[in-house]
Design goal:
The protein has 492 residues and is of the alpha/beta class. It contains 15 helices and 14 strands. The protein folds into two domains: 22-224 and 365-486, 3-Layer(aba) Sandwich (Rossmann fold), CATH 3.40.50; 231-357, no CATH class. Helix 3 (162-179) crosses helix 4 and helix 8 (261-282) packs antiparallel against helix 9. The protein is globular, with a radius of gyration of 24 Å.
């Protein structure tokens, strides 16, 4: 009896140990599969490498491990001429899932043509992928996706902050490039949302710490990059986004509603810079008549009542706008994509209960990425794939990533920058993105290498088929332009 009990106990301990082992991340490993995809009518063979590469401390000991997926086109003769793109999403704390199976990768999440979720969940070929022109590495920073800190004794603070994030990722990228023999390849970074803060800083860190000079940086739905825009400036910049959202929901006056969106927005932008911002700067000393006139114009463009605009001293906060625009219909609108409508417990109040856009995306992308990584790419693990991982507290002090990017451009005449933004994005609105681009280089000497593209979608503008096709074509054109510039000796 005692032997049976010992045997059962031993078996149980072995099972527990095996389960614990299966939940530990592999520190340094790869799984390779081969596939094809049709892009622009051309069948492209490619190699997919799903792997883990360590983050090392100063003594060369692994302290964390990071998950990545690398797509390499196989029928390429000269890898030295083949562009290589590192792709990051934001959060901070978000995995690379969104752009991976939503935008540039060879497989995309199944959604409807306007970008709204449908079931059954799954993936399909992405006929707009940029794999025809570039190899791509999708990177999950520490504590996102399958990436993990390896021990409770490791100091978390070295990963979770603006500058901390940039420092360890620059080291990791340099090691990855060496391992994969890609030093001669033209190199690009693409980041979305907080990922734009990340790649802007990386452009400087890679150049200054590792002598790795980039050809291009793509900022998708960018943050402020540490560029000051508080107070009246930040408040005024929201109005063109308000106008776009109101236009989409048909809340504008007939004479404005019947105009095409991209014909209307320049008028709102001009009013914002030339009249609205100066009025906000005057604050409580704005003349009463002028105050009423500005309130009328703001209400007209934003699809709100003059009373609401005056209640907020001409500057309606975003959270109020999301609640107010469709209040009479009993709906809220989405933060990250204001085409989405939400239902709150009550119509009153100033804040919505949840962002209907993010909720919709989470339930479409989560099952799709888990199926794809585990069953299609063959990366088998009991680890949970963290769409959003635990990275708090995040140290936001010392954010000079915009200046790091400007300095990298000034020192590297071949470095180009593209901004992509959705008109219906209320989280990182498109006109603030324009402002960031304008302020990135106050001298104006770099403006011929700074580009902006807008789309009729939200934060993830690539979820809508039409914008997915256009945005990827814009990436192709940007990559080609940067490569052509690199073939010509540059002199300031």
């Amino acid at each position: 009896m005692q032997r049976i009990a010992i045997f059962i106990l031993t078996g149980w301990l072995v099972a527990v140990a095996a389960e614990a082992q299966s939940r530990r991340p592999p520190i340094d490993t790869t799984v390779v599969t081969r596939h094809t995809v049709t892009v622009k009518g051309q069948r492209i063979p490619y190699r997919a490498e799903a792997g883990m590469q360590p983050v090392w401390d100063e003594w060369g000991r692994p302290i964390a491990t990071m998950f990545y997926v690398y797509y390499e086109r196989e029928d390429v003769q000269d890898r030295a001429r083949r562009p290589l793109i590192f792709s990051f999403n934001g959060g901070p704390g978000s995995a690379s899932v969104w752009m991976h199976i939503g935008y540039t990768g060879p497989r995309r999440v199944r959604i409807d043509p306007e970008g709204f979720p449908i079931q059954p969940y799954g993936i399909e070929e992405n006929p707009y992928s940029i794999l025809d022109v570039a190899d791509i590495v999708y990177v999950d920073p520490v504590n996102t996706g399958f990436s993990r800190i390896l021990s409770d004794t490791v100091d978390r603070r070295q990963f979770f902050g603006v500058n901390e994030d940039v420092t360890y990722l620059a080291d990791w990228i340099a090691a990855w490039v060496s391992r994969h023999d890609r030093w001669r390849s033209p190199k690009f970074l693409i980041g979305e949302s907080y990922g734009t803060t990340r790649v802007a800083g990386l452009a400087g860190a890679l150049q200054e710490r590792h002598w790795m000079y980039l050809n291009g940086v793509i900022l998708v739905s960018p943050t402020g990059l540490g560029i000051e825009r508080d107070g009246p400036v930040g408040q005024a910049l929201l109005l063109p986004y308000y106008a776009a959202a109101a236009w989409y929901h048909r809340k504008l006056a007939p004479e404005l509603q019947q105009r095409d969106l991209e014909a209307l927005l320049p008028e709102v932008e001009a009013f914002t810079v030339e009249e609205y911002l100066p009025a906000l700067v005057r604050g409580g000393f704005l003349e009463p008549e002028r105050r009423r006139e500005i309130a009328r114009r703001v209400a007209t463009y934003a699809g709100l009542s003059e009373e609401v605009v005056l209640q907020y001293n001409l500057a309606v906060p975003r959270n109020v706008f999301w609640k107010e625009l469709l209040r009479d219909e009993g709906f809220t609108i989405g933060r990250l994509d204001s085409r989405y409508r939400g239902i709150d417990r009550q119509a009153g109040g100033e804040r919505f209960d949840h962002d209907p856009a993010l909720s919709a995306w989470n339930h479409a992308f989560t099952p799709a990425i888990n199926y794809y990584l585990r069953e299609v790419l063959g990366f088998r693990t009991d680890l949970e794939y963290w769409i959003f991982g635990p990275v708090r507290p995040w140290n936001r002090e010392g954010n000079e990533t915009g200046e790091q990017l400007r300095r990298a451009m000034a020192q590297n005449p071949y470095l180009h920058v593209l901004v992509q933004a959705g008109y219906f994005d209320g989280g990182t609105d498109y006109f603030s993105a324009r402002y960031t681009l304008w302020q990135l280089d106050p001298s104006g000497k770099l403006r011929d290498r700074l580009f902006f593209k807008g789309y009729r979608s939200g934060h993830m503008m690539y979820l809508r088929d039409e914008d997915l096709a256009t945005a990827n074509d814009d990436l192709r054109a940007f990559i080609q332009k940067a490569l052509e510039a690199a073939r010509t000796p540059a002199r300031y």
